Model the fold of this input.
Amino acid sequence: MAYNCENVIWVREYLETVFSSKEKPSPDIIWDKVSKFGGKLYKYYSFEDKYSIENLKNGLVHFSKPEKFNDPFDCSVSISLDKIIEAYLPVLIDRDISVDGENEKLIKDCIKQILFDNQTDIQTDIKELKVIKLLITAPAFQKLMPKMVKGENITEFEIQQALLSSFLDVSFASQFYGLIGSASSPVDLSKLPLNDLYPDIISAIAQNPDMLSSLGANISTENIDKLKQLNDVMKSNSLIEKLEKVSIMGGFDGIKLKAELEDTRKKLIPIAEKLKESMNKQFAITCFSKISNSILMWSHYANKHTGFCVGYNFEKCRNWDALINLLPVLYSVERPSLPMGLIDFSNPKEIKLNNISDYVPELMMLLLSKSNKWDYEEEWRIVNHQSQLIDAHLLDLHTISHIYLGANISKDNEYLIRDVAKKLTIPISKYRISPDKYQLEIEG
Done:
């Protein structure tokens, strides 16, 4: 998913850190997060909400189920055919590519990397695998592939010559030393089974001519119709074509495969609805903004500037669950897709939803995702289990630091809010329409 905000990287890391452990996160992690928005967040209120005054008096904030939001796309997932294909690719490679020997898993992992690294979530932190991938895609090494197709052995001398030739390419040399030279985790070349593993990998690929016949630009050999460069596959934007190539290796009908994929997509629609229902039963959300002077938000959420806005100081918040579950909204031009990890594909005829409690980081990413059309709101959210809330929809926050009155608030409502602020000893200000600019200003 293409998020267009800088928060996505640290949010994903935060979720993995916090929800992969049974221990409470350290205070340092929490306060570092709070510092990202300066400690203050704001919530807009309308007098049409009959509970807004009572909640203000009692230091409570109201939570809503995702289905109650004004944006129908909020917390709603799409069904991505590409994501379905991604879920199938590793399975097809493991099943359809024939590899013998003790290096079977590493060889298959390497093939997955070469073919699908740019299009799928298939990733690796194994440096040996990255070195092998770099070698296989180097032109000097690809020239050895015709020998493998003809059943000839590749000698150690030929591998060494290919390696020396590759180092004449500055880009190759830079990448190679970048991989083996890391002080934190260097690659031991003496343990890298190049002599055995490289021919095995090429052999695994070469033994599948249907795949080789569609792997890109020609190599100048007598086997020109079968040998193609792997790099061109990596440049392809079509996952369905790649899936078809792998399926053909196993003798499957490409047309039938497409039909099966479409059938799977249709089966996932009710699964997505079930997930949505489950999230509405389990989670509730309350929303804040980093800004108190948004003309649009005063119009939308405070009834045309007739309501009020409350500032909350989260540096003084002692509700640890609220602080843990407070995160920024992640704005994107694309809708979030149903995470395939949530789906049990073990029986294709009976696809079902896994236990969602095992996938909290993935669910949180869904609940934080929103169209970039709303990014002017600069929103942060607290996402809580309803069981953690008062009556499943209220949270005792008691961190109010300031109250702002709308520019069009009535005299009666202004008097009411000022009276509450006085009793609670909370500072209060009033916005007015700027006389010469499209902006709001504090009176006085």
Remarks:
- Residues 7-76+283-442 form one domain.
- The first helix runs from residue 7 to 19.
- The chain has 19 helices and 14 strands.
